[in-house]
Specification:
- By secondary structure, this protein is mainly beta.
- The protein has a single domain, classed as Sandwich (Jelly Rolls).
- Strands 1, 3, 4, 6, 9, 10, 11 and 13 form an 8-stranded antiparallel sheet that branches. It has a 5-stranded antiparallel sheet with strand order 2-5-12-7-8, with no helix packed on it.
Length: about 200
């Protein structure tokens, strides 16, 4: 009986050890987050426009031209989390639920802005352009930031560095790809993840 018990416990320990070695599909973390960019490649993105997006030192960056990286997949309800750095003169943003992935803009997508020097700061960094103003506008220039965007049905919420900056109920765009925008200055992303809801 003692031998049977020891054999059973041994098999249980081996089974638990092997179970710990099973890993998630590539690009997916244990919390349900899917990595769209981690510094290694642009496999999840299509280029639209003439921005000089490139990989340097594990970072995605642009400093000339203008345009977007558009996700290859479309999303409806989700959370997106992006780590980015911009200089003070940058004009960038994360566009979500784009109706026309070949022509991303504030009329075809929800534009979550990263633009510290926007002439009308009410729709500057942290705002959803033409939908949800930000006051006071936070400054993102010259440091690493984390932007979290939640889109669930008509409810849209933006959190920048742990502070809620914009929130709105709007049902104009229900589903579509997301984009990373380059418009001016220096823009860098080091991680972009999405979690379907």
């Amino acid at each position: 009986m003692k031998r049977f018990y020891l054999d059973t416990m041994g098999l249980l320990v081996i089974g638990l050890a092997l179970g710990g070695c099973v890993h998630q599909p590539s690009g997916q973390t244990d919390a349900g987050w899917i990595t769209l960019f981690d510094g290694s490649n642009l496999d999840n993105w299509n280029v639209v426009g003439k921005a000089n997006w490139r990989l340097e030192g594990g970072l995605l960056q642009a400093d000339k031209g203008g345009g977007h990286l558009v996700s290859k997949n479309s999303y409806g309800d989700f959370q997106v989390r992006a780590e980015f750095w911009v200089d003070d003169d940058a004009n960038s943003g994360i566009f979500i639920r784009c109706a026309d992935p070949q022509k991303p803009g504030s009329s075809t997508c929800y534009e979550v802005n990263i633009f510290d020097k926007r002439p009308d700061p009410s729709y500057g960094t942290g705002a959803i352009v033409n939908h949800a103003k930000v006051s006071p506008m936070p400054k993102a220039g010259g440091r690493w930031n984390i932007m979290e965007i939640t889109a669930k049905g008509p409810h849209l919420l933006v959190v920048l560095n742990g502070t809620r900056t914009a929130e709105v109920q709007d049902s104009k765009h229900a589903r579509g790809p997301l984009t990373l925008q380059y418009g001016a200055g220096v823009v860098k992303f080091r991680k972009v993840q999405i979690k379907p809801l």
